[in-house]
Design a protein that fits this description.
There is one protein chain. Helices cover 41% and strands 16% of the residues. 50% of the residues are buried. The chain has two domains: 217 residues, 2-enoyl-CoA Hydratase, Chain A, domain 1 (Alpha-Beta Complex); 249 residues, 2-enoyl-CoA Hydratase, Chain A, domain 1. It is elongated. The longest helix is centred in the C-terminal third of the chain and has 19 residues. It starts with 6 loop residues before the first helix and ends with a helix. It is of the alpha/beta class. Bound molecules: malonyl-coenzyme A. Malonyl-coenzyme A (MLC) binds next to helix 6 and helix 7.
């Protein structure tokens, strides 16, 4: 881990040179004059060079205005007393009033022990101010520095739309030394580290301080972009679809070299910012969640990733919870949502049942169908069962020619109907799973013709889909939100 940076040093490394303007008035004096605490505060001020454990203000990152709040660890371990919480609270509210995105860089031992319970309660107003900031559709980015603990991690450190941490940083709830003193044994090694939290879906990235400006500016470019209405790029001219039957499509969709959501993003998106996990302690690689920009339109993408659904891994409840994180991001930030269906079916296991798979499918359907944000579903390949349907109910549904949608894998349906998986092709046709049928049924709005071999011609396949995506997104964001939602609800009321 790099040397611990002071608050001002960090700000100078991240913001454009000369852009920093402090918002801090003189901090309140929380200590009784002449008390031991007053002496500690005076010593902390002299040592840290700041008047409190937090500094706030505004500046620019790559030219974009941002509000910044940063802890000063040199001031009583970055701990939060009443004056620090009041300063943070005021800065968050000012950022909201001024319509500025907010970047927070905590580094703290949590609530200031010298001030006890009255200071502890400051976590509540800070959480309330951040909720109001997010509620105003403004981004909140968090960079957890070494060390971030206690009530700071448990309030403003854990409420980001996007959360990154410093490599090797100690990030945890109770400080390890406090744990050992209380319990007489050391806290397990390697748990309270940035890297471990990343692996558990609690962080989106671990990045060096020197990369923070670039990452923050990319994230903000994507998050702040949709407020501009962009010209609609030309759509793809309608091309003749081939004559493949449903079963041929099923077989084509299962070819190992068929492009998946990652290939599509690599080729089609101008910017991709991966997010990791649910932000609540789960990761599922079968669901890809990211912020992306296609042409000039930014969106949240959640996509079933075929590369991670092979052999023993399939889409589980955590993947669907990750999808719901994407839905709330889109709702809060007013970003369009692109959902990508490509699954051979959700996980069938004890863990999935006990983890609430069916409930997660229900919650995805329920949230997606009424989501305020513009929504676009792309059927990319396989589309088996509730795990696929969970990402379907969008304003517009675009399908690659050989994608399909069915209540079970066709072999499963054949087993139910005929006790014979060998009759899967016949059942696929009868169940109307092909895109031709889905177009007739009004499930799909547009089918994109595929090259003769999507695996061989991955570029053509992805480029065509990208053109359609860009076009559809640009059209969608122009529609009045009330009309869009009403049309969507009417559409899904007609289906099924
Ligand atoms: C954060 C740390 C891991 C950092 O360890 P380091 O060895 O790097 O640094 P350190 O311990 O020497 O700390 C530097 C200085 O900051 C002071 N310091 C640290 N945390 C403090 C706090 N919460 N209140 C008041 N002072 C604090 C230390 O006493 C020390 O002062 P000096 O230099 O004078 O010796 C450790 O300080 C720590 O465990 N702090 C407590 C973390 C914690 O459990 N917080 C919960 C608080 S309750 C809370 O926040 C509410 C909640 O949990 O919900």
């Amino acid at each position: 881990m790099s040397r611990r940076l002071g608050a001002q040093e960090l700000i100078d490394r991240v913001l454009d040179a000369g852009s920093w303007v402090s918002w801090d008035a003189e901090a309140d004096e929380p200590a009784e004059p002449g008390s031991a605490y007053a002496a500690e505060l005076a010593a902390a001020r002299a040592r840290a060079g700041t008047d409190e454990s937090i500094i706030t203000g505004r500046g620019t990152v790559s030219g974009r205005p941002v509000a910044v709040v940063a802890s000063e660890f040199g001031f009583l371990g970055g701990s939060m007393g009443r004056a620090a919480s009041a300063r943070l609270h005021d800065a968050v509210r000012r950022a909201t009033r001024e319509g500025l995105p907010l970047v927070a860089a905590p580094c703290s031992g949590g609530t200031r022990m010298q001030e006890g319970t009255p200071a502890f309660l400051g976590m509540v107003k800070v959480a309330a101010a951040i909720t109001a900031h997010r509620g105003a559709g403004l981004p909140y980015l968090v960079y957890l520095r070494h060390p971030t603990t206690g009530g700071v991690f448990a309030s403003w450190g854990s409420l980001g739309h996007f959360t990154a941490a410093e490599p090797g940083a100690l990030v945890g709830f109770l400080g390890p030394r406090v744990f050992e003193a209380l319990h007489g044994r050391p806290f397990p090694e390697g748990v309270q580290t940035a890297e471990n939290l990343l692996a558990h879906g609690l962080l989106d990235a671990v990045i060096e301080v020197d990369d923070l400006a670039q990452v923050a500016s990319q994230v903000l470019d994507v998050l702040m972009a949709p407020r501009e209405v962009v010209p609609v790029p030309p759509g793809l001219p309608l091309e003749d679809l081939g004559t493949a039957d449903a079963w041929e499509s099923v077989e084509r969709s299962r070819r190992p070299d068929r492009p998946g959501v990652r290939d599509l993003l690599r080729r089609a998106a101008d910017v991709v910012i991966p997010l990791s996990g649910t932000a609540q302690g789960e990761v599922d690689d079968t669901m890809l969640l990211c912020l992306a920009r296609f042409g000039t339109t930014s969106c949240v993408v959640l996509g079933q990733d075929r590369r991670h659904q092979s052999g023993t891994t399939s889409l589980g409840p955590a993947g669907l919870r990750e999808a719901r994180r994407g839905m709330s991001l889109a709702r809060e930030l007013g970003l369009p949502l692109v959902s990508v269906i490509d699954t051979a079916g959700a996980e069938l296991s004890r863990a999935a049942e006990e983890g609430g798979l069916a409930g997660e499918i229900a919650r995805c359907l329920a949230e997606l169908v009424v989501l305020e944000a513009p929504t676009l579903c792309l059927m990319l390949g396989e589309g088996a069962g509730g795990g696929a349907l969970a990402l379907l109910p969008a304003d517009r549904v675009v399908a690659a020619e050989h994608s399909w949608l069915s209540p079970l894998p066709p072999e499963g349906a054949a087993a139910i109907l005929h006790r014979d998986v060998g009759r899967a092709a016949e059942v696929a046709a009868a169940q109307r799973v092909s895109t031709r049928d889905l177009l007739d049924l009004g499930v799909v709005d547009r089918v994109v013709a595929e090259p003769a071999d999507a695996g061989q011609d991955a570029e053509v396949f992805c480029d065509r889909l990208a053109l359609v995506l860009q076009h559809e997104l640009a059209v969608l964001v122009r529609v009045d939100p009330r009309d869009r939602l009403r049309d969507r609800l009417e559409r899904y009321a007609r289906l099924g």
